[in-house]
TrEMBL record:
Belongs to the bacterial solute-binding protein 5 family. This is ABC transporter substrate-binding protein. GO terms for cellular component: ATP-binding cassette (ABC) transporter complex; cell envelope; periplasmic space. One of its GO terms (molecular function) is peptide transmembrane transporter activity. GO terms for biological process: peptide transport. Residues 1-36 form the signal peptide.
Length: 521
């Protein structure tokens, strides 16, 4: 049985997050012959982060993704969550509202909130955190989000009013899925300075758990925060958050029967097996894992003709079956159940058309063949070979795979013809923020299309679901018309639970909410 969680809000996953998966593990506590799981108040959670975090400072964190999102939310909670149907769900904040033109937003906190050091979580604490995020020396990934807050005013203990640098009808999405939502104790930040978050004693949040101990590159032990605003609903008293980046070890551990919940972020044979043996709670996102084409001048992929040939040459389902068994193809940007879904699909699976396009490109350029460089990490070499097998069937098309240590470095320098990209995250908002707008420095492909920019701009200020849907349908049409990306397969954030584990709640961008977990009856 698969329970799908269709999220329409969040942020794109980092390329690193695409390469990892997480596993929540707990020792079985059943007596021999007893099929009912005994009640437990402690579990062990094995997280597949690529490396331990240098500090548990939310300035360097995010609520997004399976890798570290659960840890940040456990320690700091989040101001708001965005539900699967796009509603704002109160957490530390009771209410988020805007003025008519969405340039001024008001955040109202719950009354009586406190940090684990007994200092108040009030408007001043929120404002202090947001101002800190904007400081260049802090070097927060959320610096751009904080810099967009042109003015921050504390109206009273429970109310913060911000003026944005431009109208944004979807600002709660940005709030919910970045470090803006993770508020540390200003007193602790001031006291410990650059050492904040480097030890249990220097880490102070207002989340459902606090840090009991931390062994670098091994585990963080979390204990329930009895002063949490909703502590009565937190069933677990302790979570051992293990750092285990080795996927084969994770797989063997869960297969041995040790684990209670297995959270997976990558497709493959292990995912196929899990789906046969366990119930699945799955988060589904906009877009997915994609191949990005560099459309800038000087690259062969600046030719729209050649980009269409690369897409048309791929029979997507058998290709994915070879590369990543269990993955779902991305035929259109939005999942079918999304209110933004439109009948716009990638033109896959027409090798005759692909050959015709390549022949035309070569005739026009006066060349006998065209060579393209595709940069990938080692983890994606099998994936790349599966697509190359499709492209090798087209005469005159030579795609060369270059395995590099850091795709991110090559992406930053725009030194690629093709590269890997996580496209979309959980919300259409990121299309505007990061990936497609001509003016954005984070526009990976270099796409510059006035019709696309116009549609994105209309979405930003759209009032009502129908206006949003119309603008995003035009976005999808322009993406298929210009083809800056080949959408490959949906991002995966799946949780497989054994008997006795319940309360699996997935927050924005696939992060598991530790506060809702229960073990046994």
């Amino acid at each position: 049985m698969i329970r799908r969680i269709h999220f329409k809000s969040g942020r794109p996953w980092s390329p690193a997050a695409l390469l990892v998966a997480i596993t929540v593990l707990a020792a079985a506590a059943c007596s021999p012959g007893n099929t009912a799981a005994a009640k437990k108040d402690s579990i062990e959670y094995l997280s597949v982060v690529q490396a331990d975090v240098p500090a548990l400072d939310p300035a360097q964190g995010s609520t997004s993704g399976q890798t570290s999102g659960p840890l940040w939310i456990a320690l700091y909670d989040t101001l708001v969550n965005i539900t699967p149907d796009g509603r704002i769900e109160p957490r530390l904040a009771n209410e988020v509202t805007s003025n008519d033109d969405a340039t001024v937003w008001t955040v109202k906190l719950r009354p009586g909130l406190t940090f684990a050091d007994d200092t108040p979580l009030n408007g001043e604490a929120v404002a202090a955190h947001w101002r800190r995020l904007a400081e260049p020396e802090v070097a927060s990934p959320a610096q751009g989000d904080a810099a967009a807050l042109k003015d921050i005013k504390v109206a009273d203990d429970q109310t913060v009013v911000v003026t944005l640098d431009e109208a944004d009808a979807h600002w709660p999405t940005r709030l919910a899925s970045s470090a803006l939502a993770l508020i540390p104790s200003p007193a602790a930040v001031k006291q410990h300075g650059k050492q904040y978050g480097t030890s249990p004693e220097t880490t102070v949040g207002a989340g459902p758990f606090r840090v009991k101990s931390w062994q670098r590159d091994d585990r963080v032990v979390l204990v329930r925060n009895e002063d949490y605003w909703n502590s009565a609903q937190v069933a677990l008293k302790e979570i051992v958050y293990r750092i285990m980046p080795d996927p084969s070890l994770r797989s063997k551990t869960f297969a041995s029967g040790t684990g209670d919940v297995n959270a997976v972020q990558t497709a493959g044979d292990d995912l196929v097996k899990l789906r046969k043996e366990h119930d699945e709670t799955a988060w589904e996102s906009v877009g997915g894992l994609s191949i990005a084409f560099n459309v800038r001048d000087g690259h062969p992929t600046s030719s729209r003709t050649l980009r269409e040939a690369l897409v048309a040459a791929v029979d997507i389902e058998p290709t994915l079956q070879r590369a990543v068994p269990g993955a779902e193809p991305v035929r259109s940007l939005f999942i079918d159940s999304s209110p933004f879904s439109a009948p716009v699909e990638m033109p896959f699976g027409d090798k005759a058309r692909a050959q015709e396009l390549v022949d035309g490109y070569l005739a026009e350029s006066g060349k006998s063949s065209v060579s393209l460089t595709w940069v990938v990490n080692q983890q994606f070499s099998t994936f790349a070979q599966a697509f190359k097998q499709e492209w090798d069937k087209i005469k005159g098309l030579d795609v060369r795979i270059e395995v590099v240590q850091s795709v991110l470095d090559r992406n930053r320098s725009r030194d690629f013809d093709l590269t890997m990209s996580g496209f979309g995250g959980g919300t259409p908002r990121v299309l505007v923020d990061l990936l497609l707008s001509t003016e954005k420095a984070t526009n990976l492909t270099g796409i510059s299309d006035s019709e696309l920019d116009d549609a994105l701009g209309r979405y930003l200020t759209a009032d009502g679901r129908e206006a949003q849907r119309a603008s995003l349908e035009q976005v999808q049409k322009r993406l298929v018309a210009e083809l800056p990306y080949l959408w490959a397969h949906r991002l995966i954030a799946s949780y497989f639970a054994r008997d006795g584990i319940s309360g699996l709640k997935i927050l924005t961008d696939g992060s598991l909410d530790f506060a809702s977990l229960k073990a046994g009856e």
